[in-house]
Amino acid sequence: MENKPILLNSVQLARFVAHGSLRLDAVVPAELNAEAVGVLAEGVAPVAYGTPLSKAYAPDSFTARLLAVPQVAGAVRSLVGPEPLVDHHAVHVREPRGGEAQPLHADAIIDVRTDAFDVQLMYYPQAVTLEMGGTLSVPGSHLRRTNESDTGRYQNLRGQDRLVCPAGTVVFLHHGIWHGGRRNDSDAARYMFKIRFNPTVRQRLLWDTSDLHDPCVLAELDVTFPWYEHAVGRLERYNRALLWRELTGDPDFDLDHWVTRVSNRPQEATA
Length: 271
Ligand SMILES: O=C(O)CCC(=O)C(=O)O
Ligand SMILES: [Fe+2]
Hints:
27% helix; alpha+beta; 9 strands
């Protein structure tokens, strides 16, 4: 509230586009983290689907204060713009010695948009150790369209990321990313608070673009991940190039000509 949002930069946006997620470690102050466990254990009253963010949470509520943390406010604004809608929120608890992991899934059921995406914020008030059932996610899976739990039969993909993080970490996810809460083998409950945002503005150049032409942007966009098949891995980069075109408004952006070479549509020859 009193502090200005800290926007993401282009390298961070490119990382989000390639990985399907971006983590901001320990950005939430210790006082808020200390308050969070009690608040989350009690539960957060639901918000009606589609409530504008500025109307969703009372100004002095825990959630409003969490969303006012400059790095959190800046990331939300950079990814979905100034006044997104709250799709829903939920407190996710992995119970101590819970015995089960959640199957790998995407939270979106059939979402074929290529020019817009929802973003999920995941906030971890406690330090999460490997035993505590951090959220597993598969980097680079968000643009491979699957229907919600169809990926549930996949176990342990190469390059998967089991979240281990310090207290006060916030992770932003593209809605399509494959993820799941892991088994909690510790004696402590693991809390996570998730909010899904729907953009209300075109997701174009909403971040701090002063580094747009930094070579690190291209390097981030062109990464490959160890679970990709050789050829379909190219399709992932093709889809990223399309998403980067949408985000930047640059109709010629490409990675190694993958989009350009299949955009060639010669018309009939003129005699
Ligand atoms: O608890 C977690 O770490 C993930 C929860 C989740 O993805 C879900 O319930 O949809
Ligand atoms: Fe989920």
